[in-house]
Amino acid sequence: MGKIRLVALDLDGTLLTDDLIIEPRAKEILQQLIKQGIGVTLATGRMFSSAQLFAIELGLELPLIVYHGAQIRHAATAEVLYQSTLSLPMARRLIKHLRRFDFAYNVYLSDRLYVEKIHPENEEYAERTGIELHQVEDMLSFLQEDPIKIVALRDSHELDRLEQIIRQDVGKELYLTRSLPFYLEMLNPDVNKARALQELASWYDIAPAEIMVFGDSYNDVQMLAYAGLGVAMGNAPDDVQTVADYVTASNNEGGVAQALEKFLL
Predict the structure, then answer these.
(1) For residue 108, which of 171, 57, 58, 66 has the smallest C-alpha distance?
(2) According to the model, what pLDDT value does residue 262 have?
(3) pLDDT for 37-73, tens place per residue?
(4) Which of 124, 184, 118, 191 minimizes the C-alpha distance to 150?
(5) Which CATH number describes the domain made up of 6-83+191-264?
(6) Can you give the pLDDT at residue 1?
(7) Which of 92, 153, 172, 179 has its CA 20 to 30 A from that of 17?
(8) Is 87 within 8 Å of 128 (Cβ atoms)?
(9) What angle do CA 56, 58, 62 make, to 5 degrees?
(10) Domain segments of the chain: what residues?
(11) The pLDDT value given to residue 164
(12) 132: how many CB neighbours lie within 10 A of its CB?
C-alpha cells in the first residue's frame, strides 16, 4: 500500500448509519483529510441527485461515482463526465420479466426515477432516498432511450428466483447486483464501481495502491479488491469481508471513523 491520496466510500450500510445520516466523527475526519489534500469521493448505487446531498454536506469537490459506477458526475455542477447505459432492447426485455411477476421496479433515466405502478416498495424507496417518483402509464411505450439502470424491489427470496430467471435468459449480457438484499439492480455488463474508480483515478494520476475504499455489500466487492486498501464494514456479509484487506466496525458503530483513524490519522 502506498501513501493514500484518494478515499472512496459507499453510502448505505457504510458511511451512513441505519438512520441514514453520516456519523459525526466520520464527517469530521473526512473534512480534515480534505484539508490535508487527500481526495474524498462517494461510490454508491444511488442516483446522482440523492448522493449529491451527502456530497454537499461533506464539502466534496471530486466527481462522484453513482449508479454502481454507471455514471461519474461533477459533485457541484452535475456535469456528466462518464456514463455507461443499459441498452433499450435489454431494458424492455427486463421490464417484460418484471411485469410477468408483477414486481415493483424503478427505471432511471436522466437522473429521474420512473415507475409504472406505485407499489409500497416504490414508496419506501422514494422515502429512503429522498427522490420523487414519476409515474408513467405504460413503461414500454414511455421508454424511448437507454436508461441508466433498472431496479426490482421485493423480498430477497423472491428476488433470488427472479435473478435466476434473468441470468438464464440473458447470461453475461447484464450486470446484476444487490446494494441491499431487497434491491436487485440491473445495469450494463461493463459497469461496476471498480471500473469507474479506475477511470476517476486515472484523471488524477492516482495508482490503485494510493486508494482506500469502504464498502459493505456485493456491489462493493470489485472495488474492495481493486484498491490498495479495501475496508469492509462489520455489517458486511462474510464473503464480502473475505475480499477486504481490513474489516472495521459496523456502520452503526463508527466503523468508517475507526478505520480512517487507524490508517490515515
Answers:
(1) 66
(2) 97
(3) 999 999 999 999 999 999 999 999 999 999 999 999 9
(4) 184
(5) 3.40.50.1000
(6) 60
(7) 153
(8) no
(9) 75
(10) 6-83+191-264, 88-187
(11) 93
(12) 9
Q: What SS3 class is residue 220?
A: helix
The dihedral through the CA atoms of 73, 79, 84, 86 has a sign that is positive
CATH of region 88-187: 3.30.1240.10
pLDDT given at position 247: 98
Is the distance from CB of 230 to CB of 243 less than 8 angstroms?
Answer: yes
pLDDT at site 172: 83
Distance CA(44)–CA(67), nearest Å, equals: 6
Under a CB-based contact definition with an 8 Å cutoff, are residues 57 and 31 in contact? no
- The three-state secondary structure class of 113 is strand
- Cell 463526465 belongs to 81
What are phi and psi for residue 202, nearest 5 degrees? -65, -30
Q: How confident is the model at residue 197, as a pLDDT?
A: 98
Instruction: Determine the Cα–Cα distance for residues 94 and 184; give it in Å rounded to an integer.
Output: 12
Beta bridge partners of 113: 108, 133
Q: Taking a C-beta distance cutoff of 8 angstroms, is the pair 36, 264 a contact?
A: no
| 83, amino acid identity | Q
**Of residues 156, 250, 79, the one with CA closest to residue 258:** 250
- Residue numbers of the chain with a pLDDT score lower than 50: none
> Mapping DSSP to helix (H, G, I), strand (E, B) and coil, where does residue 91 land?
helix
Of 179, 185, 187, give the one whose Cα is nearest residue 221.
179
CB distance 218 to 194 below 8 Å: no
